[in-house]
Amino acid sequence: MGRTVTILISRLEDPMVFQNSMLSLIRYLIIVLCVFLTGCSQLGYLAQATRGQLEITFSRKPIDEVLANNQATSQTRERLELVKRIRQFAIEELDLPKNSSYTTYSELGRPYVIWNVIAAPPYDLTLKTWCYPITGCISYRGYFSEKKAISYQERLIEEGYDTCLL
Asked: Which of 61, 106, 123, 148 has the fewest CB atoms within 10 Å, measured from its CB?
């Protein structure tokens, strides 16, 4: 224990290590502050959003690999071939950058990636907005579960909003 403390103290005496440690601490505190400022009611929403995004990220495969293994449906194969042609057109004809955009595919086993709930007060075209730590304020709320999206939509209807599920 004593040796560990000595090593830690000697590392913190190094100005660069101390500065990096302080920056890490400040980042951590900012994240914690953002979570608390969003309110407890949004923690569940933010958790499902994080889970959904991670599901997409970890299930993605290169489009060429999906097409090569012949396990995708014919409709999915046609759509992925179309994505490849559109991407190639964008690179060659529109001079868009040849980067990793539109090169992967995620099979999630559901009809939609996300269900968006939008709401507005009755007889008003001003959309309700929700504010989040990373994305800022947006005029929709996305759910990776249709059931959760419908549940939230029903709650907004009970609060008197006109809603739409997209």
From this structure: 123
Contacts 24+ apart (CB under 8 A), 148-154: 148/48, 149/115, 149/116, 149/117, 150/115, 152/117, 153/117, 153/119
152 pLDDT higher than 50: yes
Boundaries of every domain in the chain: 112-166
The Cα–Cα gap between 144 and 57 comes to 13
Residues whose CB is less than 8 angstroms from the CB of residue 154 and which lie 6 or more positions away in sequence, other chains included: none
**DSSP tag of 42:** G
pLDDT of residue 5: 46
C-alpha closest to that of 39 among 130, 147, 155:
130
